[in-house]
Amino acid sequence: MRTIVLHDGDLVDGTGTDPRHAVDIVVAGDTVREIVPSRPADAYGTVDEIVDVAGMLVIPGLVNNHTHGTAYGPLFPSGHEALPHERVLANLDRHLLEGTTTVLCVDGFVTAEALARTDEAHPVNVRLASCNTPACLAAATTADGGGLTAANRAFTARDAVRAGAVALGEIGAGHTLGGGGASYMYIPDEVERRTGVRITPRQANGLKTAVLGRHISASAFDRDAVEEALAGAGLTGSLSAEDVREIVSGIVLPAFDIALRGLAEAAGQAREAGVPVLVHNAAASMTQVAAIARTDVTLIAGHSNHSSFELREAVEHAGRLKEMGAIVDVSTLDTFGARRLTTGPELLYAMFSAGVVDTISTDYAGGHHDPILLAIDRSVRAGVVSLPAAVAMATANVADAVPGVAPRRGRVAPGMIADLVVTDPARLHHVATVMVGGEIVVRAGRRVKA
After folding, report:
1. Which domain of life is it from (predicted)?
2. Helices marked H in 196-238
């Protein structure tokens, strides 16, 4: 059995307790054997490897409960065409280098066989969620469905749970509920088809909001706002306000009501199966999400800092959900980097300051998500959350919220699986070393190939 010692580092163990300084973490095989005050390296005799982590911070491997494009199979709960396998593996590499050792893929129509092949091909622990209930399948087929094979359609949510899926989700999603997926993919695609001009996600979102409002309603159409959004996108003369209403309404509305009905349907199936349900929580779905929270299902309100919310609305809604026992998740989205849809960290910071956040994930953000550790680093520096609390939100809290997603993971303690991350305390997102199941798979910030 191989023994590795992480020597003389500081430890934030995932439980929310204060950091421990100058400790050695002894890993035997795939398990943490002991955590002790640091000893001289030569006290360990003939162990297989001693990794000097002095001046560094050790945390549990992150457990990310909201990812897309991390398993072979249809992309998104709209059943979009699957990514090439090499792109899926590149996405997993990216998560790994960001300190994530377990992901929950919430694309929703991935089969157990495809999940197993993905998990075997990469050191990140990939876990399955399903959204394949009748209404969600109908919404996907209406909105897109281009990647759904007969096998995907036949592999229902109940089948998935029997095959080891640990949650139902993502139920809804921006691609069927008029969220970010419509803004960064479907609307720009159709505008480009008609005009030859590729608009940005933010410009598409402006058109969508002018036509349907934040809460998605045909009655919200605002012609003046549409004309302003057209001018802002450089499309005046290329499309009329009526053209935009046709485009946006034709993309968003056919699947929207079906997807809304799917929220309650999936919650009922999750309750029967005894697994959590992870739902798309945004301005357009907040009423239905609150209704589910009043039931006895374990509800994870995904990306509760969604850009469709106004700040006060989001915080108050999250507070009500939390009071009803829901798990409030926030996502990094593209808050600090690309900002193609988000405008900055103010909403995220407000959620932390209000004390309503339970878990932190990334979501997809059109492939531009920010690292969880970057969001934690910036939020801690902003004084809106403590480091131990934030690390717990990305590790132990997730493992507790979704039983089965990361058994014996999410905490650093004797007897736990050795999924460990060594990072720079001054720049948390600069990950140096990652260990998965006791094996070092990232060294000096680079993936170690088998």
Report:
1. Bacteria
2. 201-212, 223-232
Domain ranges for the chain, please list them.
3-60+410-447, 62-177+255-332+356-401, 180-252
Q: Which residue carries 């419509």 as its tokens? A: 182
Residue 235 near residue 195, CB atoms below 8 Å: yes
Residue 30 · residue 438 · CB < 8 Å:
yes
364 Cβ partners below 8 Å, 6+ apart? 67, 68, 69, 76
pLDDT per residue as tens digits for the range 154-199 = 999 999 999 999 999 999 989 999 999 999 999 999 999 999 999 9
> CA 431, 437, 443, 448: dihedral to nearest 10 degrees?
-120
d(CA 413, CA 435): 15
For residue range 127-144, list pLDDT tens digits in order. 999 999 999 999 999 999
Alpha-helical regions (H) of 355-447:
372-381, 387-393, 396-401
For residue 123, the surrounding DSSP H or E stretch is none
Coil/strand/helix, residue 406: coil
Q: What is the pLDDT of residue 143?
A: 97
Q: What pLDDT does residue 449 have?
A: 83
Distance CA 117, CA 243 (A): 44
If you count them, how many residues does the chain have?
450
pLDDT in tens, 43-61: 999 899 999 999 999 999 9
Residue segments in the chain with a per-residue pLDDT below the cut of 70: none
Q: Are the beta carbons of 162 and 269 closer than 8 angstroms?
A: no
Architecture in CATH for domain 62-177+255-332+356-401? Alpha-Beta Barrel (3.20)
Closest CA to 256 of 222, 291, 215, 225: 215
Q: Does domain 3-60+410-447 have CATH number 2.30.40.10?
A: yes
